[in-house]
């Protein structure tokens, strides 16, 4: 059962300007693994990547209805890529399934996050294998 949907759109050039002007932006928004992945990109692809991660975290915060801050911090949310390039989102101590789609067009990045309640079998599996599905 879907329990939350969040959407966010960001200007890639605006995020790029913030990244270039504020040294702490990357380390406050992105995890170490995300920064490593970003470092493999060059030129406009670097800013696209960072804007996509920022947008995904914003969309996640909207899907939960909590925002960023008190219950969930920037560093609690991690958006990485599977081997085939598909983005995945993982959140520390978050018991629900999350799905993310990130798309770029021109100077815009649009992200959608869906949160789904886990089945009873998945909940039991998480108790047995606690590392599955969380950071």
Automatic annotation (TrEMBL):
Compartments it resides in: Cytoplasm
Enzyme class label: transferase
A Gene Ontology biological process term: fatty acid biosynthetic process
Annotated residues for binding of Mg(2+): 8, 58
Pfam families linked: ACPS
Domain 4'-phosphopantetheinyl transferase: 4-104
Key words of the record: Cytoplasm, Fatty acid biosynthesis, Fatty acid metabolism, Lipid biosynthesis, Lipid metabolism, Magnesium, Metal-binding, Transferase
UniProt keyword DNA damage, yes or no: no
Family in the record: Belongs to the P-Pant transferase superfamily. AcpS family.
Identification of the protein by name: Holo-[acyl-carrier-protein] synthase
Gene: acpS
């Amino acid at each position: 059962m879907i329990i939350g949907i969040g959407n966010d759109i960001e200007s890639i050039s605006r995020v790029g300007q913030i990244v270039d002007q504020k040294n702490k932006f990357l380390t406050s928004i992105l995890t170490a693994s995300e920064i490593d992945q970003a470092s493999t990109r060059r030129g406009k692809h670097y800013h696209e990547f960072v804007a996509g991660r920022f947008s995904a975290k914003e969309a996640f915060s909207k899907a939960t209805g909590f925002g960023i801050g008190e219950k969930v911090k920037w560093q609690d949310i991690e958006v990485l890529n599977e081997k085939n390039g598909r983005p995945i989102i993982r959140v520390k101590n978050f018991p629900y399934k999350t799905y993310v789609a990130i798309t770029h067009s021109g100077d815009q990045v649009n992200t959608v996050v869906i949160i789904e309640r886990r089945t009873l079998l998945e909940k039991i599996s998480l108790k047995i294998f606690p590392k599955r599905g969380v950071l």
